[in-house]
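General statements about sequence and structure are easier to judge against a single worked case. For one protein, we set the task of working out the structure tokens from the amino acid sequence alone. The sequence in question and its structure tokens are set out directly beneath this paragraph.
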Amino acid sequence: KKLRKISKDVVFPLSKEYKELIERMVTELRYSQIEELSEKYNLRPGMGLAFPQIGINERIIVVVYEYDDGKFEEYAVVNPKIVSTSDEMIAAEAGEGCLSVNRDVESHVKRHARITIEGYDLDGNPIKYRAREELSIAFQHEMDHLNGILFVDHIDPLDPYKNKDYMREI
């Protein structure tokens, strides 16, 4: 039920507990993308997590993006908002997955190819990120969680590849 609730804005300062949770989320996401560590700790691979996925309905997302083999960019955004989007639409060729959905779902989820998000870092300083392609998909996916939306909600069960011709696969 908590995954379906709209999350509340976070009030600063962040607690020590929240900062430790975010650090743990970053570590586990990074480990989940390194095959040897993923197997060692029995982690499902994932790029992102939102606080509702750990039972806290507050607006915090974490994304760990492997931009090159073994090289990661880490993002923790408090109270994120999408402030601009591209007209171009894309979909992950292999489909999206979710650490809160314990099954493979063959489909395409239509997402913006590029987005700009604004929010705050862990100390309450304003931040802004421009994301494209895979990173854009990850941010949109995690931000959906803050609004009680799962990626499967975007899929037509009768036509899971609906609108395939109107988006670019990545």
Residues 16-32 form the longest helix (17 residues). Residues 115 and 131 are 5 Å apart (CA to CA). Helices lie at 16-32, 35-40, 133-146.
